[in-house]
Automatic annotation (TrEMBL):
Belongs to the heat shock protein 70 family. It comes from the Eukaryota. GO terms for molecular function: ATP binding; ATP-dependent protein folding chaperone. Pfam families: HSP70. InterPro entries: ATPase_NBD, Hsp_70_fam. The keyword rRNA processing does not apply. Gene3D superfamilies: 3.30.420.40. Keywords: ATP-binding, Nucleotide-binding. This is Heat shock protein family A (Hsp70) member 12A.2.
């Protein structure tokens, strides 16, 4: 007997009919665990024994992964310990950092080679242009998830060749996972822990779209952090929120001026309001929180930010070099010496963080009258302390996901629903007739939440409905968002379709329409939907922000 991890999926496998999660699959020939593809969806089948094993595994450790545009890292904390551990990176090559560059290297057959400093080192060892060109080196790829996104997204390596983005992301996460589990083994005198004994936290920029969060979740499943059916083992945390969770337990001293009251820590002083600005490589993310009684946080202003992270400086520096050296010379340099250019850009980045005047040396002579070196001076500063805030806050968040008590909605969210067609009210709007000849208008906007509304982290917004056809066993709701707070129909200007909710009605009876409640949580870091039938049976409803029908 097999179990299907994706509700309602009809598998391409001969004879396999998948039903809702938790019900045994009927007529399945093959009881082995394997992965099959159905359209663009990945469907995983597990034997009953395996699934039970994964679900009963106790989460003994929390592992938070900060997958940054420029640098990535992780930390872990055992449930029963207060200590948060974070590995040091780059020691073998003279660095000592809390994160490693987000660079991943594949060989010419697209097989994973290295990640981080090791990826750069390996790439740089390939001295000749031809050798380097055969390898696939990716850096700065996190920002590919900003803006339009779909599962088939391809991204370009340094050599100009393309690979599937989901592979690049999932191999990066797999590296982090394996590294973390190895480190945990080292710290526990060789005790073996598997990924399913951990609760994973993956941090994402606050400005990430639901599609980008879903993309990261799917990459995490492919990387083996969690199994499809065990989605609760992965918490998607917002980077500036995680940083805020860390900041709130810092001493008051040094943060506020004037009368500090009796409290030692920010979280001990209700009504304290503060802003966290996370200036990363790709994004700048901002949150504004107020400390509530008990130390939990309330979001005062919706998360905001932009894509003007530190790497826009790197891009501009590159453009500056191109203009200074002339485009022809620069392009020839890039073509002939890709590794040298790469090294130069790395030096530039290191130089920005050095906290003092720095020198970026150009490894070749650009013109006959040049002295052979080109240098640029920079003055910058940074605190090592701040670097760990996102990770340490994220691991804390995993044990207290309710720590952010409420959030402000970025948009007005709703679905399109059908109501009986009224020739005057619905004039000119799209309609359809059911099999009993009843005409419906199908573009009514049903509000779940309005823009700027404060929603508790655990608050459900509900929609009760009856099926249009008697024998309906599944239905799809189109999910919409808009900046408007007074929208009435989904065909109005400014209303954007951005997701699909698939609802399976497992207890469908042919004789009557079904009454069901769709509940969606909007106050957490990801939206979550459940379906409750008349008898109170609950199932997860699949929210899909990357369906192919959507142009995002
Ligand atoms: N002192 C500094 N002054 C200016 N820029 C700096 C300084 N230190 C680091 N940077 C830049 O900050 C970026 C790295 O910051 P960080 O590690 O927070 O980013 P990230 O987490 O990788 O990115 P993101 O969170 O946007 O995905 C790099 O672009 C780096 O060049
Ligand atoms: Mg970051």
């Amino acid at each position: 007997v097999c179990w299907c991890a994706i509700v309602g999926q009809q598998s391409e496998q001969k004879g396999a009919q998948h039903t809702s999660l938790g019900s045994p699959c009927v007529q399945c020939d093959d009881a082995g665990c394997h992965i099959i593809l159905s359209g663009s969806q990945r469907v995983q089948i597990f034997t009953v024994g395996e699934m039970a094993e994964v679900q009963k595994a106790e989460s003994v450790v929390s592992i938070a992964v900060d997958f940054g545009t420029a640098y990535s890292g992780y930390c872990f904390k055992f449930r029963k310990s207060k200590q948060i551990r974070m590995p040091k990176w780059g020691l073998e090559i003279g660095y000592d950092t809390l994160k490693t560059p987000t660079c991943i290297l594949f060989d010419e057959n697209k097989q994973f080679l290295n990640f981080g400093y090791d990826a750069i080192e390996t790439y740089n060892r390939h001295k000749s242009k031809e050798e380097a060109k055969r390898l696939y080196l990716f850096d700065n790829f996190k920002m590919e998830l900003y803006g339009k996104l779909n599962r088939a997204l391809m991204i370009s390596a340094k050599n100009g060749k393309k690979m599937r983005a989901i592979k690049v992301f999932s191999e990066s996460l797999k590296f982090m996972k394996d590294h973390a589990l190895d480190k945990i083994r080292e710290h526990t005198a060789g005790m073996e822990y598997s990924a399913c004994e951990a609760t994973w936290v993956l941090t994402v920029p606050a400005i990430w779209s639901p599609a980008a969060k879903q993309f990261m979740r799917e990459a995490a499943v492919q990387a083996g952090l969690i199994r499809d059916f065990d989605h609760e083992r992965l918490i998607v945390a917002l980077e500036p929120e995680a940083a805020s969770v860390w900041c709130k337990q810092l001493p008051y001293d040094g943060f506020l001026e004037g009368d500090l009251g009796e409290s030692d820590k920010i979280e001990d002083e209700p009504e304290t309001q503060y802003m966290v600005v996370d200036c990363g490589g790709g994004t700048i993310d901002i949150t504004v929180h107020e400390v509530m009684e008990g130390g939990r946080l309330k979001e005062l202003h919706k998360v905001s930010g932009n894509n003007m992270g530190g790497q826009t400086v790197d891009k501009n520096f590159r453009e500056f070099l191109r203009k200074t050296l002339t485009e022809d010379v620069f392009d020839e340099f890039e073509e002939k010496y890709p590794t040298e250019l790469y090294r130069l850009m790395c030096d530039f980045s290191v130089c920005k963080r050095s906290g003092s005047n720095g020198m970026v040396q150009c490894p070749i002579c650009f013109s006959t009258d040049s002295r052979g070196k080109t240098a640029t001076r920079l003055i910058c500063s940074e605190s090592v302390y701040a670097q760990a805030a996102v990770l340490k806050g994220a691991v804390t968040f995993s044990t207290q996901p309710n720590i952010i008590q409420s959030r402000i909605s970025l948009y007005t969210y709703g679905i399109s629903t059908s109501e009986q067609f009224d020739e005057i009210k619905h004039k000119g709007r799209s309609s359809f007739e059911n099999r009993d000849g009843v005409k419906f208008c199908n573009c009514r906007f049903y509000f779940f939440v309005k823009k700027d509304e404060s929603i508790r982290f655990d608050e459900d917004r509900e929609f009760s409905f009856s099926t249009v056809e008697r024998d309906q066993t599944e239905l799809n709701f189109r999910f919409y968002r808009t900046e408007s707070k007074t929208v009435q129909y989904v065909d109005e200007e400014g209303v954007e379709e951005f997701g699909l909710i698939r609802v399976e009605l497992p207890t469908a009876k042919k004789s009557r329409e079904q009454s069901v409640r769709l509940k969606i949580k909007f106050g957490f870091t990801e939206m979550m939907a459940t379906i409750t039938d008349r008898k109170g049976n609950k199932t997860d409803a699949k929210l899909d922000f990357m369906t192919e029908s959507l142009v995002l």
